[in-house]
Specification:
Layout lengths: L5 H4 L2 H23 L10 E5 L1 H6 L1 H10 L3 E5 L3 H18 L3
Parallel strand pairs: 1-2
Amino acid sequence: MIQFGDDLMGHQSTGGARAAQLLKAAVTRYVTTLLPNLRDHRVLARIYMDPEELGRVRSFTEGFSREEPFFDIISGVDENVVSTKITGMSLWKSRSSGG
């Protein structure tokens, strides 16, 4: 689970945009450390949120998803749906890479 600190959450839309930038930079550093010959890549992030929580941080999430084209906030799903989606993505990735 990822949690963004009060320093980002408190700045609403600009905090969400900054969180997206920081997350993308961290993932990019991690991936390029593992795969130094990788030249072209995209970072895709999906955050699944309870609708009630989304309402409390709407401005933050709008800034987060607006900052990066492949960053999405998805609302209205319970833990079982999230688990199914993550498992499905893992299976798709495994099949598409020949694994």
